[in-house]
Amino acid sequence: MNDSAEVLEVLEGLRNRNPFFFELVGENGYNLLIGLGGDIACAQYSCGDGKAPYLMALANGAGDTTERKEFLTCNTPTPVSKRYCVPFEVLKQIVVHFMETGGRDLVVQWEEI
Hints:
Order of helices and strands: HEEEEEEEHE
Oligomer: single chain
């Protein structure tokens, strides 16, 4: 799937499943790991070879928080700080930018983890 409109349509169809992780692989050697669960999502931008840095999109007004949202990966609930949870509409913006450029959307703040 190379068309961002197609990917957004798929995201809409998947957002009501139990929260889970999946990955978009860019042709430029970078990946976007996405946690999707209803109106909440998270996104990690990283090099496809698995080497650091790993950059997480920050929630607007993100502060230190102990609250977590769980996303399934390999049938295991994986907690993600709500500091890194963004609204679904922001995720769509991040995905479109990644699909069109292979890069991370610089309108969104990112933090190295």
